[in-house]
Write a structure and sequence with these properties.
104 residues, alpha/beta, Oxidized Rhodanese, domain 1, 5-stranded parallel beta sheet, 5 helices, 5 strands
Amino acid sequence: MNSIQTMKQVTPTELKKWIASGKDFVLIDIREDWERERYNIGGRHIPLGDLIGRTNELPKDKDVVLYCEKGIRSVLAIQRLETLGFHNLINLSGGMNSWKEQVG
């Protein structure tokens, strides 16, 4: 059931609209420090290896968008977090690679 097909996804174009409109959501960058330093779109930085130990920083009462470089690690992170009772998680489809291609 927790397949990529049923997982909530947001495209880079949709996410840019959310940011521009002031939509109430939390953005989490799960990449490593060096990746974030090269390029990021903001949000809270919680590297994947620290994520499970820092779940107290993730709200359960609003949408949480997770992003990584290609959208693969964020899928894995969401699958893990869903087993801990999170049901408000959204994957940035294609990660930063798609963001750079679609919205710059």
